[in-house]
């Protein structure tokens, strides 16, 4: 039995929702993955009379495709979609059976209007929390458009194939045999890359807002909900809904919720925002802010949005080390997410740059997968909590280098080593290794503001106790501000605070 009792119970409920018959075509050999795959699809068939299974020969063995009877939908799983990909399997079954997807109609229309042949392949790992978004988006596109196909490939089941393509970060997507993209993408991002994104004309007829929120993380979502609950016209424009929360796996300090995961929390935030009739504009980046009669926010596609007040909640991103080799080998051995990309470095030597909590947590995590982990810390002592340091020093396959400065990440077509300077002697040392994980904190996403809003020396927006900036009518909240602590719950509180500040400003002006 592949599925445990809990998952079976969940699955049983979902399979009641199938609207039509589904045919699973299985291409299996005599290997262990094939045997487990056959066990999984046979189990699915015993759980619903709507699911039929037949043997077939597909381009990859082991793999299986999910089809309507008499019609190939182009949805294929090469590997066993359990772990984080279990939801992708469930959604594929439901959507192929005819159940309507939870996607805006304009997105469905965009997908159906794509002409041409698009054969997507996505390389994933089952422990990657960023991968399901991409898999589910490409599956849906395949189901809605007969010219599109998608195969999810588990990098662990197809290790040689992934290595032959130098896949060193997940998700990595190929289109018609050529590299397409790497990293988390929404369905809107994919459509944008295919040239099907909304342009400036799609925003031309939008009336001015009372409150326009820029950024869709916890602060932005909270601000938008608090504003909309006041009955005022609210818009939210965001590059990706959920922000950095999407890059977080386990969340255990969100008060009243003992444990949740970043992707799940981000989905809940978006669902909650949609309850309030807020105008949500996704996959859009702001590039300019200017105060005129209204406050104007110009987007990268050239559209200009107007509002009486604006709340900036653009969050933060991983800080780069800024050494030669980092940019060149991004996703070719340089990584920022140990949970996502760690499994690709199984049995290999990796380095972690950074001795704070996130760096040491990453090193502990990677030590269970990699053959050896080397930690590089700039300061003479690690900054991580004592309990994490104790755990780290108890591991046999970890080396800690303190008081060292990273000089260069070396490689040819992928990372092959790291050079560092011993700060007390000035001696340069080099280590041969296969991957480098950068974990040195955050930098606020505020560069686009220039001098329009007061920022401190590290780029954080300076706000007062009401969330107000130095520009009347412009407020800010969350990790992009000079709030001393960067936590989800603090961002949410500051988003609510900024929205109430903006409402108070509207009443008085």
TrEMBL record:
Tagged with keyword Cytoplasm: no
A Pfam family the protein falls into: Pyr_redox_2
The organism's place on the tree of life at top rank: Bacteria
InterPro entries: AhpF_NTD_C (IPR044141), AhpF_NTD_N (IPR044142), Alkyl_hydroperoxide_Rdtase_suF (IPR012081), FAD/NAD-bd_sf (IPR036188), FAD/NAD-binding_dom (IPR023753), Ferredoxin-NADP_redctase_2 (IPR050097), Pyr_nucl-diS_OxRdtase_2_AS (IPR008255), Thioredoxin-like_fold (IPR012336)
Residue span, FAD/NAD(P)-binding domain: 209-488
Cofactor entry: FAD
GO biological process, one term: response to reactive oxygen species
Domain Thioredoxin-like fold stretches: 125-193
Molecular function terms from GO: flavin adenine dinucleotide binding; NAD binding; NADH-dependent peroxiredoxin activity; oxidoreductase activity, acting on a sulfur group of donors, NAD(P) as acceptor
Keywords attached to this entry: Disulfide bond, FAD, Flavoprotein, NAD, NADP, Oxidoreductase, Redox-active center
Binding locations of FAD: 210-225, 469-479
GO cellular component annotations of the record: cytosol; protein-containing complex
Annotated NAD(+) binding sites: 349-363
Cysteine disulfide links: 337-340
Cofactor mode of binding and number, as noted: Binds 1 FAD per subunit.
Family stated for the protein in its record: Belongs to the class-II pyridine nucleotide-disulfide oxidoreductase family.
PANTHER family: THIOREDOXIN REDUCTASE 1-RELATED-RELATED (PTHR48105)
NCBIfam families: AhpF
Subunit organization: Homodimer.
Protein name: Thioredoxin reductase
Organism per entry: Paenibacillus naphthalenovorans
